[in-house]
Structures are given as C-alpha cells and as structure tokens.
Sequence to fold (494 residues):
Amino acid sequence: MDSFPFLAALFLITAATWLISSRRRKNLPPGPFPYPIVGNMLQLGSQPHETFAKLSKKYGPLMSINLGSLYTVIVSSPEMAKEIMHKYGQVFSGRTIAQAVEACGHDKISMGFLPVGGEWRDMRKICKEQMFSHQSMEGSQDLRKLKLQQLLDYAHKCSDEGRAIDIREAAFITTLNLMSATLFSLQATEFDSKATMEFKEIIEGVASIVGVPNFADFFPILRPFDPQGVKRRADVYFGRLLGLIEGYLNERIQSRKANPNAPKKDDFLETLVDILEANDYKLKTEHLTHLMLDLFVGGSETSTTEIEWIMEELMSSPDKMAKVKAELKSVMGEQKVVDERQMPNLPYLQAVVKESMRLHPPGPLLLPRKAESDQVVNGYLIPKGSQVLINAWAMGRDETIWKNPNSFEPERFLDQKIDFKGQDYELIPFGSGRRVCPGMPLANRILHTVTATLVHNFEWKLERPDASDAERQGVLFGFAVRRAVPLKVIPFKK
Ligand code: HEM
Fold:
C-alpha cells in the first residue's frame, strides 16, 4: 500500500516520457508537456486562445497539444494558416465533430460539418449562387431596411424614457430580424415579438450548449454516457429550431400550391421551394432545413458579438466615434437609415469594422478543421484525424505583423488594402479557402448597417461610466468570445 504513490508517480512519468518521445520520433509539431490521460487540458485556462498565443511564442506557429485524447495542432502565423487552408486546403477541409452537433443527426446532413463531397458542394453552391449572390442580397435589402427602422424606433423609445440599451440584446434581436427577413421575408415583427423571442431563446440555447466544454469531446469513450447531458439538451433545442423552420417551409409550399400565380418573394425560402420542385440537386427537404439551422446559428451569435465589440471600442475612443459620425453625416445627411448601397462611400466605417474584427474575431480559433490524411507541413507531420485550430486572435494581436497591436486604430486600414475576405491570412475572422464563411456577404451588411444606424442617430453615454477597464474588456469564452459584462449605453437624440 505504501508503495502506491511511488508506483503512480512512476507510471505518470513513464507515460508522459513515452508521449513526448513518440512526438519526437514521429516528428510531430512541438508543444508543451502532455500529462497522461488529461494531456494539456489543465493548462488551457479560461481563455484558451490567449493561452495558445503565449505558448506559440515558445513552441512556434505550428504547435501540438493533447486535449484528453484529441490530438490538436494550433496554427498561429499567416504563413502556416496559408499552408493549411490554401496549399493543403483539401487535406484540412474536414471538421472535428463535437458531440452536441450530433443532435438530431445534424452532423450527418449539415453543410457546416459534412466532409467536403457531393452534398456539401451542392449546398455551398446554393448559398453562393442563390442565397448570398450579389443579386439576391440586393433584392432583399429593402426588407432589411425595415428591420433597421425597428431598431431605430426601439432606440428612440429608450431615449425618450432615458433608459439604457443592452447593446448585445438589441443587436441579437436586430440580427435575427435581419436574417429572418433575408431567409424567410417574415413580415415586420414588433421589436420584442413572440416569434423573435422564441427564436432568440432557442438560438441562445444552441450556442450555449455548443460553446460549453464537454468532456465527451476529449474522451470519446464517454460519448455513449453523455455525462454532462450535452447531447440530450442539444437534441431538444435543435429539434425545436428544426420544427420552426419546417413550419415556415411547409407554409410556403402550401401557399404556392394555393396561389400558383402569386408573385414570388425575394427570399431564400422561395429559392429552396424552387430547388425542391425542380429536383436539380440530389438534396432532400432535411438537407435544406438543417442548412437553415446552420445559417441561423452560424450567423446570429457571431454577428451579435461583433456589433457589441464595435460599439465597445467606439465608446472607449470618443475621437474615433466622432470620425465615424462625421463620415456618416456627410454621406447620409438627414437620412435616418443607411442604404446598403452607400457602404462603398463609408471607408472609415469599414476601417472601424475591420479593426474590431482584428482585435475581437468572434470565433478566435475559427471552426475546428480536421486532417483527412497524414500531411507534412513545414517539416512536421500532422497525422490523419488531428484537430486543427487556427488562432485568428493570435495573428490579430501579433506585434510582428501589426504596429501597436492592442490599440484600436482603424486608421491603419485606410492606407492599405488588407481585407477580411480570406485572401490576407493575417486577418481571417471568416476563415479562408474551401470552407470560408458562406454568410460573409450578409454579415458584412449587418455589421455595417447596424453600426451606422446606432452611431448616426444618437449620442451615447455609458450607463456605468465608472466601470473599470478590466470589467469592460473582460471576456467570456464560448461559441463566440464576447464581453463578460453586457455593454449598456443610453441614447440621446442629437
Ligand atoms: C461576424 C459574423 C461572422 C463570422 C465572424 C463568421 C465566421 C465564420 C468562420 C470562421 C467559419 C469557418 C471558416 C473556415 O473553416 O475556414 C464560418 C463558417 C460558417 N459560417 Fe460564418 N461567420 C459569420 C457570420 C455568418 C452568417 C451571417 C452566416 C449565415 C447567414 C454564417 C454561416 C456560416 C456557415 C453555414 C459556416 C460553415 C461553412 C462550411 O463549413 O462549409 N456565418 N463562419
């Protein structure tokens, strides 16, 4: 019995030494000491992207860690990101599947999680050519204008009552409304209507489950037992959201049958019904309902989080806020809601959005990729099945790439052409390559128009100007990395 601690220590040391030496033997990317069983999980801390950024300074831009039994490679430089997402893009085009994503069989049918193949290609094609094409984005912009007007009305009401607006809350509802307008052309709802609230509750539920660390993802042996109840809860939320989407789709199919000559609507639902009727693709109704789920979940948390960061940065820099206001005034004049066509005339606003994305990419580690086969990158072997995380946050804060990387300086983007569309690897909040975010054209419009509407029409004061910097910059890691304390600001009419 007395010898137990000694034997246990001996076992741990032997296992760790074996893990490290096997890393060296196979020439895997270097990384911190992995403990047996847990690997490096205890080192992650509450902000894994920041921990990885620090570790990569020691171990390099291609570093490996063990998350339980999930072997993971972390990429932290634009050069290595280009290798992974472009040069070897086909190899690293897979996704690791979290247990939550298995809810309602989502992983087997979802564009966001299927491996690159026929079904995935068809859905990407529908998104690119039909839903997010320039033409369909232009076609649905008047519907989005109505939703921005609702945000404006709500802000006026708060201003009249001297009430603070929770920016996250208002951005979430507006984003959902803008997405519902684009996807379903839902009639203008009240700002806090029942339908919007139901969507909001479900999507927040999905995001909170997908964002929570789940032991079963790191120790697959636990998956059948679902020890944290993640899969059970995800089944409920995914089921409710799919039910709502199916309801909208069936309604549209029925109304087409009832009025075959009625004019078509400018929305994605109409496109989906056309696709189902024409049967051009080998896709079933479920592919399309799960696709809608991906779009709603993928688009709302991310956009909402970013709008809150943009407003936070502008509130912290009154001089930059004044510059955006002046630019908006010169372009919009007395007009209240910005027209999406005016975006090219607002270079400073565009620079503000880019700068916020550089400092606060909503998904700092993007969406996990997976190696579909063994691949040597920069002299190191990345074995088949490895999870690959791209640390976009670390690249955005790298002092070898950006001057004053931790300061909010939108001006840096005025005299250079760097964009976040996936070609400039130092700024890739939307990813890059085959799996780059398909919703970028809509996200781009949402971020700019919501910010413009808020900034142009009001002066803003913090509800709690005495809050410390630590409180204001504190973050919560999850599906998207957001402010820990919601930003609350009071609007004043000009
Ligand atoms: C600020 C807003 C947004 C950010 C920062 C963002 C970011 C991302 C990132 C990093 C990826 C993974 C890219 C990769 O692996 O290379 C992604 C994928 C995806 N995004 Fe977005 N996104 C945003 C908005 C949206 C919107 C508005 C939609 C839809 C309406 C959307 C739908 C999706 C989908 C479906 C995927 C999966 C694509 C695939 O795996 O093939 N996202 N997004």
User: Anything to note?
Assistant: The pocket of protoporphyrin IX containing FE is lined by residues 111-112, 179, 294-295, 298-299, 302-303, 306, 362-363, 366-367, 429-433, 435-439, 442-443 (CB under 6 Å).
